[in-house]
Amino acid sequence: MTTITVRSPRTRRAVWPAYAAAVWSLGYGTLGLSWALGAPGFPWGRSDPDPDGALSILAGLDPTPGGWWIAGFGLVCTVTALALTRMSGRVPLRLTPLFLAWPLAALLAVVIPDSRVMMGLAYTPLLLVAPLAGWSLGGVQLSDAWPWPVLNQLLCVLGGLLLAVGAVAYQRRCRDACAGCGRTDEDGWTSPAAAARWGRVAVYVAVTVPLVYCATRWSWALDIPLGVSKEFLDEGAKDAPGIWLAGAYLATFGAGGGLLTLGLTQRWGEIFPRWIPGLRGRRVPPLLAIVPATLVAIVITVAGLTYIRQSLAGRFLLSEWGAWLPETFWPIWGGALATAALAYHLRRRGRCRRCGRS
What we know:
The chain is an all-alpha fold. The chain has helices spanning 9-36, 63-83, 91-111, 116-133, 142-145, 148-174, 192-208, 211-221, 230-239, 243-261, 286-312, 330-348; strands spanning 3-4, 87-88. The protein folds into 2 domains: 3-174, no CATH class; 189-348, no CATH class.
């Protein structure tokens, strides 16, 4: 077996995400080891403020043996990330790091986190503005939206993203594609024209899926029991005053995101409209759309998987379908949004400075 280690500056730049993922994995594995040995801060089990363990897939995990499992998991991720920095000369062995990296990245980014990440991101703007506007939110503060167990989930998402970016760079080297743009002489479905076609379909799906959820929450705020019983609405308002207004806020947040998603196929998503002072007529930086769209895609997929787990566990009533069924389609929303963001990137990446392809 021949091991090839390429030392050119371009290759070193291409493998830095894999090295970053290795550092993350080693650090997180060390955290797991410290929790197993009695250090405070274990983010699951009894330390998690989730009252009945209904949200986290790791709700029943304790520091022992949980910390040891995390340490072992960190070791596996470290070895996998380091494998992404090198390529074997034999084709079957080249694929082994990818078979490990993608499942590990998905586990970290979308399986281990839960819907509280979405709730934290959605309510953060409101919690920041409320003190300035003199609004009372029942004593809820920013720290309530981001306790350590939820911040830990963001840390896991970061590790998953680093592994995913490292895997993409590795795939490019396996395909003899450009390390900068991923192009080869045969682009096919990644050509700008093809991306415009399938990206448009993805945008339509991403805009349509959340509308049922929005309709239910707006209806509840108007005291219309769409998908639930009147008793459900009355009990919710009694137990948590203002909860349906908060739901309408989230629905409006989602609808606004859907409107912005249209920009991935519209001219105003590439050139700032005239009504934006100081920016009108200027080119929209692609990352300004791609980064938020990708992060939102991850967050809503995570939230949707949380509702799917809860529904499979029998935590919901079929008669109250409006309270949970629309959310189970969110992974479709997230997948469509990520696909639309990819299409937008492929359309707007322009000529590559490294390979000269366009």
